[in-house]
Write a structure and sequence with these properties.
Chain lengths: ~250, ~325
């Protein structure tokens, strides 16, 4: 079984969000970069668990980005992938990223393609569906459980107000949600092994550009909290009813 | 030329609330562009579709095909692409809900149509087509320029007010050619009596300050009095005090209700990322230094076990 896990580089969850170049670029000054948590905690760790259950399985990691992504790719390898591929393309849109991943996937015939439900920076939730469509594969999004029996996968996915269980034959593309697996910390053996695992850099194929970022902006600052005395909850209800008009 | 709006139907055959938001949004966009507003229904539905005309849509294309009885992203994509082509749609509109997140990217790749997911406002449609979306988990906006002739937008739930007017839609049967889905639905487990969290206008949420799952009764009472949905913070879900689908935050669900009432939640930045698009935030916490107060509109510093039952009584009094 061959598994591909897509890894995105995102700012740390506590990073200050600011913009430069006339509000057209994210200000990366002083930002700590991490593996997108949805890719790491859910997609990658579940893939590692599947390999632990089937040692013949291989895990490839893919990232579409510049050389500054190498550090987070090595960290992902320390957690468990066998080898990594970085497609050397800077700042493509979602479709550009999906096109590069689909190209690599076509050459390698993966049984499973895993990725996080969304990146925590652009919140697009787009790349998985695009990759599935480009490869003409089934796509199950927001998966919270994934079990494999032979070449049949039983997958639980989130729906509004509940969940749905479905069955699909491999190959398939899965976007991974909380519940799939639990976060792991790389151990020293993993970190040492990651240094010598292959990280192949390939040049991008031509891809259409469908969207561009025109500008970023920040939401207006909150006016500040209005505190109500704990002995006077009626006042809070009055404010919510008459001032905020939400109840 | 038209704006084609995907009308999402739940397992019980009812039109989802988020569909009313996208119908209103799509109809407004169609008026702005001077084109027709049309709806599309693929799933079995028990409601009268004509009545959806009051949200501003003139025609609803209804496909009835056994292969579409259950949602499957691949099969639905093929069906939507065929209807979009036949009707000459120039913009496709979805909710950024679970189904929309699966469909819109597939259609974007299939039709080479630029996608803006998580839109929070109507597009600017002068010389270029620019849509504002939420990014960095609600901490910023990005204005995305779509440069393809066909455009796709998914609208964030609870970010556009539903408007009802007069009007009756024409329901037009539509045919599509699709194979049986490769994904087979085995079971659906849905709390149909409760408001889905993502669609809820009011949300009551509990954190570690609740001290244990056995104490959730006071939050359930408050939620019931308000007709609110329940949510929780990550430590609560990780400790299995509450189910994972109630977890909101960076790695849980992102919500944007009118009211988010946080009880015993300190307000870590990762939690705020899931709720900072809420219109009004109320924080109840015994620690006046809890960071959540900085992001709140209203707050009470006090013992939640005393404050919450009193609040429930005060809400009941208000509602008479």
């Amino acid at each position: 079984m061959k598994i591909l896990v897509c890894i995105s580089k995102t700012p740390d969850t506590t990073a200050k969000i600011a913009f430069t170049d006339n509000n057209t670029k994210f200000d990366a000054a002083g930002v700590q970069w991490i593996i997108n948590p949805n890719d790491e905690y859910y997609a990658l760790v579940r893939a590692i668990e599947l390999k632990e259950a089937d040692p013949a399985a291989t895990i490839h990691l893919i990232n579409v980005g510049g050389a500054d992504a190498d550090a987070i790719i090595r960290k992902a390898l320390a957690l468990g992938g066998d080898e990594a591929i970085r497609v050397n393309a800077e700042n493509p849109d979602s479709f550009g990223i999906a096109s590069q991943i689909a190209q690599v996937a076509k050459e390698n015939n993966y049984d499973l393609i895993f990725l996080g439900k969304e990146t925590i920076d652009y919140n697009g939730s787009s790349v998985g569906g695009m990759v599935a469509e480009l490869l003409d594969l089934p796509y199950i999004s927001l998966a919270t459980k994934f079990e494999l029996s032979g070449t049949t996968a039983t997958v639980t996915r989130e729906i509004e107000g509940g969940e749905e269980v479905c069955e699909v034959s491999l190959p398939v593309v899965i976007s991974c949600n909380k519940g799939m697996a639990e976060q792991r910390i790389p151990n020293m053996r993993g970190i040492m092994a990651a240094r010598t695992k292959p990280l192949k850099v390939v040049e991008p194929v031509a891809a259409d550009i469908l969207t561009e970022i025109a500008a970023f902006s920040l939401p207006p600052a909150k006016a500040g909290v209005k505190l109500v005395d704990a002995d006077n909850v009626q006042e809070l209800v009055r404010l919510l009813h008459e001032e905020a008009k939400v109840i | 030329m038209s704006v084609l709006i995907f009308i999402d139907i739940n397992e019980e055959g009812a039109v989802k609330k988020t569909s009313l938001e996208v119908l209103t949004y799509g109809a407004r966009l169609a008026r702005q562009l001077g084109v027709a507003a049309e709806g599309l229904v693929l799933a079995p539905v028990k409601e009268e579709l004509q009545a959806l005309g009051k949200y501003g849509v003139q025609t609803i294309h209804q496909v009835q095909n056994d292969a579409l009885a259950h949602f499957d992203a691949q099969t639905y994509t093929k069906a939507i692409a065929q209807v979009a082509e036949k009707t000459g749609a120039t913009v496709l509109v979805f909710s950024n809900n679970t189904d929309g997140k699966a469909l819109a990217p597939r259609l974007s790749a299939r039709l080479k149509a630029g996608l803006v997911s998580g839109a929070v406002a109507l597009p600017e449609t002068g010389d270029s087509f620019i849509v504002r979306k939420s990014v960095f988990s609600g901490k910023a906006f990005a204005d995305i320029k779509v440069i393809t002739p066909l455009k796709i937008i998914t609208l964030n739930p609870n970010s556009f007010n539903i408007e009802e007017g007069e009007g009756v839609a024409i329901v037009a049967p539509a045919e599509v050619t699709v194979d049986a889905p490769r994904v087979k639905t085995i079971s659906v487990n849905r709390q149909s009596s409760e408001v889905p969290l993502a669609e809820a206008a009011l949300v009551v949420s509990g954190g570690r300050g609740m001290k244990g799952p056995e104490n959730w009764g006071i939050l359930e009472d408050l939620a019931k009095a308000l007709n609110a949905a329940l949510a929780c913070s990550r430590p609560v879900a990780d400790a299995h005090w509450r189910p994972h689908n109630e977890h909101v935050g960076q790695t849980g669900g992102a919500i944007a209700p009118n009211l988010y009432l946080a009880v015993g939640i300190s307000g870590a930045i990762q939690h705020l990322a899931g709720v900072n698009r809420s219109k009004v935030i109320v924080v109840i916490n015994k620690d006046p230094e809890a960071p959540f107060f900085k992001a709140a509109d209203y707050g009470i510093v006090g013992d939640l076990f005393e404050v919450v039952p009193k609040l429930t009584e005060a809400v009941k009094q208000l509602k008479g």
